[in-house]
Amino acid sequence: MSSEVAARHDAKKLVRSPSGLRMVPEHRAFGSPFGLEEPPWVPDKECPRCMQCDAKFDFLTRKHHCRRCGKCFCDKCCGQKVALPRMCFVDPVRQCVACALVSRKEAEFYDKQLRVLQSGATFLVMFGNSEKSEIMVCRLSSNQRFLLLDGDSHHEIEIAHISTVQTFAEGSSPAGGNARVTGMSLQYSTPGAEGMTQLKLTAGEDANTSRRQSVAWLAAMHKATKLLSESRDQ
Prior knowledge:
The protein has helices at 3-10, 97-119, 209-233; strands at 12-17, 20-25, 64-65, 72-73, 80-82, 93-95, 121-127, 134-140, 146-150, 154-158, 162-170, 180-188, 197-202. By secondary structure, it is of the alpha+beta class.
């Protein structure tokens, strides 16, 4: 794909919705696989009372819609404005207590772990049933849509086509002691090809900065796959 075509695919536009300003992709098909669609709002006529505390709405007790779940609440139960990057909102938006808690937890992924994924890390990589491994740098593309692997060869895996992820660790114990993720196995589909392809990533053996970076990358990728699963289930 040429840089000009890629730039067009990554182009964004500012739109105004009832929930607020959003910076969304020009082409919906090229949006982040971690994104969530705006929910439909519960119609005002269907919520005479707060859906959390059951307070009756009147002139003094106004109703508000949570931008994440679309349900109707009073100001006490929906007065927090929290960032919601998964829906591409430019500014923090009003959310109910439960949704605000989830959004704050997700903030760590966008503030820290996403940067780790896009910075990349070095792994021993094996494709399919091959017993031959290759040292490659693995990173998430800037548009969050592809896993890029570079070594003697180059591979691109579309994040949305990853179906299953399994991590493996060292130092685990039957009692559930401290275990560190040291590798990951992914299965993904390739357009035009039958069946699934397996990819195995293993952090290097040396206890150095590169290994620590690889372990942090695996932990961030594990979190990313959870968000990806939530987006699919929406």
